[in-house]
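Onboarding guide, step 5: your first structure request.
Type a short instruction followed by the sequence, for example:

Predict the 3D structure of this protein.
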Amino acid sequence: MRELEQLLRRAYDAFNRRDIEVALALMHHDVDWPNAMEGGREHGHEAVRGYWTRQFGLIDSHVEPQRFDTDEKNRVVVDVLQIVRSTSGDVLSDRHVQHIYTLRDGLIVRMDVADTQPSLDGSLS
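The system replies with structure tokens like these:
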């Protein structure tokens, strides 16, 4: 688990520094990645690169891993503090989410996002 945590910490660090190439180097060439901003999923390095390039032009998101665990499917579950700001610096979102990773051969092959905070009506979105 320690090696997987180190790999994911490197990925978070690269994302927060906007170093897309370093982050992609930690992913399988056909990675399956959620497009949380526009909906749907991205497949492969080129698609993730394009998604992040668009995202970084519209918002400033910062993710801080808080806790690492594994689930019953042997995926790595990371509790994350996610802060999203406008390009002018206004906080748009400050919440905890879970990132769920499937890894194979030391690379990220899939990531999913689970919202862990209830919405105003009490449900999880």
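Each response can be followed by summary notes, for example: Residues 119-125 have pLDDT under 50 and may be disordered.
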